[in-house]
Specification:
There is one protein chain. The chain has 653 residues and is α/β, with parallel strands linked by helices. It has a domain of 366 residues: ABC transporter type 1, transmembrane domain (ABC transporter transmembrane region fold), CATH 1.20.1560.10. The chain is 60% helix and 11% strand. Helix 2 runs parallel beside helix 6 and helix 6 runs antiparallel to helix 7. The chain starts with 18 loop residues before the first helix and ends in a 9-residue tail after the last helix.
């Protein structure tokens, strides 16, 4: 949209990461909830046992109560009382005598039917409790994961954010986390319970009749191979969908945030077309992923019908032919039991195939989240970092080099010193390195060579929090939060009293316009300070910096967005704010520079001239030329405004 540049996290990797390792890493988040997981495991085993025992009991109901037993042999088959008695005696749940009467058989059958009904209720209750418990644990895990991710994002360096769009990062916390939520709350427990059920059913089938069991499971290797292939394809497809939905979010975030510029330059149609293309790519990626998911289930279903055909065909032939298999007879009850096993076997296989695809989507989302969490900040505290004591404010740049891209220095051998209480004005053309110079002071970036010291202490050797709490910052692009005006002012000092907040606002000449708002200091601002003019937002930023009472102050175009009348009003406030503090001021307005103790003129990352304003003007060098070209007209406007319009009593923008 405004440059189709995606961050380093969006680059499609050529080799997928280990899904098993990603899943294991995700499962570590369940550690604090292991008692719940033990309960889930117990319920899972109980539910699987019910699923396994029901087909066997159904087969016993047929052999023991409903039909005579067919005994197979080399010479044919015969229905005999002794065989019936032997079969009934083999019933595990209450042997039935060979000469049992009709009433006795009906009674036994009724007891078995009640048992089967009770087992079904037990299976339903255990399954419901299992899913609830897993969902409870999953929600807690998701919360921990999102908090850890957000905490990690807050600690990443500014260089990372210059390479990655906020929409992409938001997608990690929202969309990718949503896929993980679905997996840990439902899909994961379904896959695990289904896997346990499959293993148990296989064991039971091989135990009852190992050869008949092997024949019934002949399609299992084909099912496994099919699932493995489809899941691998689906995982790659889902990884692409996660990337494409991130691009959609990035386009959406840019389109909404930059709507004023879009409308001002009549770029609506172009941006809509760009958004349409992003959505089309997202659509195609999802269709491709769903294609694999949709194809897997019917494929496995067809293989399941093949397994049923084998059970019925082989078992029916042996039953009618009176032959044994695996050293034991094949009865009608055994065939029915194996039909139940195959059906129960096919159900979790098909279910796992679908949920496995969802699990692959979740793993792809987890990969993206962990990839982000594995990003290391460019700025890290030294292992032996110490607390920076209250500073006096002597700042020294010693042969400082800085670069964003290796081999392309932005600052080249800067030597600069500022004594406590001095104001250093930094001027120069766009791209000279002015902002980079001041960003080194609070360690938003690090030097590539040389050192920046405060009171003789290298800023790289102290704890970041102890450094930054003593540095005040007022930026050209003021950021205000969707909160009250009072809380925005006290953002750097949450414990500040209302009286201190008001005093800071008065110092910044913001009190009067705040009191004209409907709720005064309790007025809740819109997104990024919506409802205020740019000048008013700048005044609140100055008040916020004043409240923290920093020893070092950085003003980056602090008065660039206010009109000339407002500028005159806050100039006096800035003089009070700068008094006694070491200050670095980046400015394009002459009024901000005239009273500076020294002026630094930067060009291409090198200090070309330095001195006081009058000295540099007298030299008629590079600073003089820039001043005459950029500042003269503004100075004339200020002079004309001062001569015609008296200073108002309150700031108005």
């Amino acid at each position: 949209m405004f440059g189709n540049v995606r961050g380093i996290l969006d680059q499609e990797t050529t080799k997928p990461k280990s899904g098993g390792e990603t899943l294991r890493r995700l499962l570590r988040y369940f550690g604090p909830y292991w008692p719940v997981l033990v309960g889930v495991l117990v319920l899972m085993v109980l539910n699987a046992w019910v699923q396994v025992i029901v087909p066997e009991l159904t087969g016993q109901a047929v052999d023991c109560y409903l039909t005579p037993v067919v005994v197979s042999g080399q010479g044919g088959s015969a229905v005999v009382d002794d065989a019936a008695a032997a079969a009934r005696a083999a019933c595990r749940l209450g042997a039935v005598a060979a000469d049992a009467g009709r009433d006795e058989l009906l009674g036994g059958l009724l007891r078995l039917a009640l048992l089967l009904g009770g087992l079904q209720v037990l299976g339903a209750v255990s399954g419901g409790l299992m899913f609830f418990s897993m969902n409870w644990a999953g929600q807690h895990v998701l919360r921990r994961l999102q908090v850890d991710l957000f905490q990690h994002l807050e600690g990443l360096s500014l260089g990372f954010y210059s390479k990655n769009e906020s929409g992409q990062l938001m997608s990690r916390i929202t969309n990718d986390a949503s896929t993980i939520q679905q997996a840990v709350s439902f899909a994961l427990v379904q896959v695990l319970s289904g896997g346990l059920l499959i293993v148990w059913i296989v064991w039971q089938m091989l135990t009852l009749n190992w050869l008949y069991g092997l024949l019934s499971l002949a399609v299992l290797p084909v099912m496994i191979a099919t699932t493995a292939w489809f899941s691998g394809q689906a995982r790659r497809a889902f990884r692409r969908t996660r990337r494409e939905i991130g691009n959609v979010n990035a386009e959406l975030e840019e389109g909404i945030s930059g709507v004023r510029e879009v409308q001002a330059f009549s770029r609506e149609e172009a941006n809509i077309e760009s958004f349409r293309q992003s959505n089309a790519a997202n659509r195609d990626a999802n269709i491709r992923a769903v294609a694999y998911t949709a194809a897997l289930a019917p494929t496995l279903e067809g293989l399941g019908y093949v397994a049923i055909a084998i059970v019925v065909g082989v078992g029916g032939y042996l039953l009618l032919a009176g032959q044994t298999l695996g050293g034991s007879a094949v009865s009608l009850g055994l065939i029915i039991a194996y039909l139940g096993y195959v059906q129960r076997f096919n159900a979790p296989v098909q279910q796992i195939s679908v949920l496995w695809a969802n699990l692959q989507s979740a793993i792809a989302g987890a990969e993206r989240i962990f990839e982000l969490m594995d990003q290391t900040p460019d700025i890290v505290e030294a292992i032996d970092a110490v607390e920076l004591p209250p500073i006096q404010g002597r700042v020294v740049y010693q042969d400082v080099w800085a670069e964003y891209t290796p081999g392309e220095p932005v600052l080249k051998g800067i030597d600069l010193s500022a004594e406590p209480g001095e104001t250093v004005a930094i001027v120069g053309p766009t791209g000279a390195g002015k902002t980079t110079l001041v960003n080194l002071l609070p360690r938003f970036y690090d030097v590539s060579r040389g050192a920046v010291t405060i009171d003789g202490v290298d800023v790289r050797t102290v704890k970041l929090e102890s450094l930054r709490r003593q540095v005040g910052l007022v930026l050209q692009d003021t950021f205000l939060f969707s909160d009250t005006i009072a809380n925005n002012i006290r953002y750097g000092r949450p414990e500040a009293s209302d009286e201190e907040v008001i005093a800071a606002a008065k110092l910044a000449q913001a009190h009067d316009f705040i009191m004209r708002l409907p709720q005064g200091y309790a007025t809740v601002l819109g997104e990024r300070g919506g409802g205020l003019s740019q000048g008013q937002r700048q005044l609140l930023a100055i008040a916020r910096a004043a409240l923290t009472n920093p020893r070092l102050l950085i003003l980056d175009e602090a008065t660039s967005s206010v009109d000339t009348r407002t500028e005159r009003l806050i100039q006096a406030a800035l003089e009070k704010l700068l008094a006694g503090r070491t200050s670095f001021v980046i400015a394009h307005r002459l009024s901000t520079i005239r009273n500076a103790d020294q002026v630094i003129f930067l060009r291409d990352g090198v200090i070309v001239e330095r001195g006081r304003h009058e000295e540099l003007m007298a030299r008629r060098g590079a600073y003089y030329e820039l001043t005459m070209s950029q500042f003269r007209r503004h100075e004339e406007v200020l002079a004309a405004s001062a001569a015609v319009t008296p200073a108002p009593a309150a700031a108005a923008d």
